[in-house]
Write a structure and sequence with these properties.
The chain has helices at 7-14, 16-20, 52-61, 111-122, 190-199, 249-267, 328-331; strands at residues 42-43, 46-47, 66-68, 75-78, 90-95, 98-107, 126-130, 140-145, 150-157, 166-173, 180-181, 184-185, 204-207, 211-214, 224-232, 235-243, 272-274, 287-292, 297-304, 314-321. It is elongated and about 70 Å long. It folds into two domains: 7-177, no CATH class; 184-331, no CATH class. It is of the alpha+beta class and 336 residues long. The relative contact order is 0.13. The longest helix is centred in the last third of the chain and has 19 residues, at 249-267. A hairpin with a 2-residue loop joins β5 (90-95) and β6. It is 20% helix and 32% strand.
């Protein structure tokens, strides 16, 4: 189940603040060699999807020094990747499903040469993926490759204070990569997620022990009137957009069906639908259209709020949940 925008552009924008962390050790120039393309879960000589300990042991066995990244507890900085189209320090990022991303940075002046090196590795790129349409300081994708199971991009990261501008090669293994939805990176630690949303210009509304609410998600639906990021185990577990809803029941239900149809078109398959005969009721439950996979649970719903005789107004919402961090009720949803 893929995010609804270009994967490389969406992830670069959402992880703008996170990507800046790779700066500070740019290679002095491009050097590299021919390397095999991704094969299964293997790329750059690394076993993506493996847990941190075995990956670090494999690096050590190959004579490659590695250390924890002081600015990111989810990352390790290796002296190099075992196999890569360019040399230089290699930042490895781990999540609930193991190693999912590797980054190599070079001086920004070498961006085009970096793209050329990766094209010799993976073939022609989708060039000119363009700016993400968010605030200054967020990486701009220069070129992207979407091979089966993999997302690869070269981004330009603007200078930020003492950090120089850089070109960043990021390689992601889709199966293990926490999704980015509506500009929100799921699976990441709360401080990183909130910093990323702030960098994208999201307007904070409230914050409590379990959730942070914004006026809207930075890359979400234009008509959304709120965006709530829920956290579990200190990481982003779910994102909910509340949409502007008509006051009348029938029109609200039509809006729910229309939004579910649009989502079905984006995902590429029909949802599992459930709705009480008389529509949503605070006792009988919501109307829902649900798509489930091992990477993302999507629900477009219609919910009846409080009101006399259980007849409050119906609101329409969309929720994206990351299964490894899902509450028990969401995690128990049947996969299709």
């Amino acid at each position: 189940m893929r995010p609804t925008a270009s994967r490389a552009v969406t992830r670069a924008a959402a992880c703008g603040t996170l990507a800046l962390a790779v700066l500070g050790g740019c290679a002095g120039g491009l050097q590299g060699r021919g390397v095999p393309p991704p094969d299964g879960s293997l790329a750059l000589g690394l076993a993506f999807g493996d847990a941190r300990d075995p990956v670090e042991r494999a690096l050590l066995a190959g004579g490659i020094a590695a250390r924890p990244a002081g600015d990111d507890p989810d990352a390790v900085v290796a002296a190099r990747c075992p196999q890569a189209p360019v040399d230089g320090p290699c930042r490895l990022v781990f999540g609930p499903n193991g190693l999912y991303a590797a980054q190599i940075d070079v001086p920004s002046t070498d961006a085009e040469e970096l793209v050329a090196r990766v094209e010799r590795w993976l073939g022609p790129a989708a060039r000119g993926a363009g700016p993400s349409g968010v605030h200054v300081g967020v990486p701009r994708v220069v070129a992207a490759w979407e091979r089966p199971g993999w997302t690869v991009a070269v981004s330009h990261v603007p200078a930020d204070g003492a950090a120089p501008a850089a070109a960043v090669l990021r390689v992601e293994y889709d199966e293990a990569t926490p999704p980015v939805v509506a500009g929100v990176p799921l699976g990441r630690r709360r401080a990183d997620v909130e910093a990323s949303l702030q960098g994208q210009g999201a307007t904070l509304v409230s914050r409590d022990g379990e959730a942070t609410a914004y006026v809207g998600c930075p890359q979400g639906a234009p008509d959304a009137i709120s965006c709530v990021v829920q956290f579990n185990q200190g990481r982003a577990a779910a994102v909910t957009e509340l949409h502007a809803s008509p006051a009348e029941d029938q029109v609200a239900l039509e809006a729910w069906r229309a939004r579910a149809e649009r989502m079905a078109g984006e995902i590429g398959r029909a949802p599992a639908e459930a709705c009480p005969d008389a529509g949503p009721d605070r006792v009988g439950g919501d109307c829902t259209a649900t798509w489930a996979s091992s990477r993302l649970l999507v629900v477009v719903g219609a919910h009846r709020g409080a009101g006399g005789r259980h007849r409050g107004a119906i609101s329409v919402y969309t929720t994206w949940t990351y299964p490894p961090l899902a509450p028990a009720s969401a995690a128990g949803a049947e996969e299709e």
